[in-house]
Amino acid sequence: MSSRKIVKVGDPVLRQQAKPVTVINKKIKRLLDDMAETMYQARGVGLAAPQVGVSKRIIVVDVGEGLWELINPEIIFREGEEVDLEGCLSIPGVTGEVMRASRVRVRGLNRNGQQQVITAEGFGARAFQHEIDHLDGILFIDKALRIIKQE
Ligand code: ZN
After folding, report:
1. 46 has which bridge partners?
2. The domain at 12-149 falls in which architecture?
């Protein structure tokens, strides 16, 4: 495992539509390992592959309840809405108030190609929505009701 460089806002890779993964090979597994390492080292709760410069539909999320690795994730159900603060490892020094669904169900593949269905609420639901947005080139600052810049 090794930590990779986190791409910052302004880099075009963050605005691309990421490509679905068709084959889960060694390279993809290595990427998953590196993404988790990079996320933990940066003390983030989620990371999407475009944030390490790879335009593929892969995310990792850990909101303190264990690591989720998801390949080709999609939100298959959402309900409720809530506004809360969020930030992004690719946009240092900025937080914003963003409206998100309060509960989501997410489907995707694990590294063994098995389908996973995860139901998440609150902060966990927020993390999945934020990371999946990255795969469509969407950043939280696009959706924020209010942006807060830290000194
Ligand atoms: Zn982000």
Report:
1. 61
2. Alpha-Beta Complex (3.90)
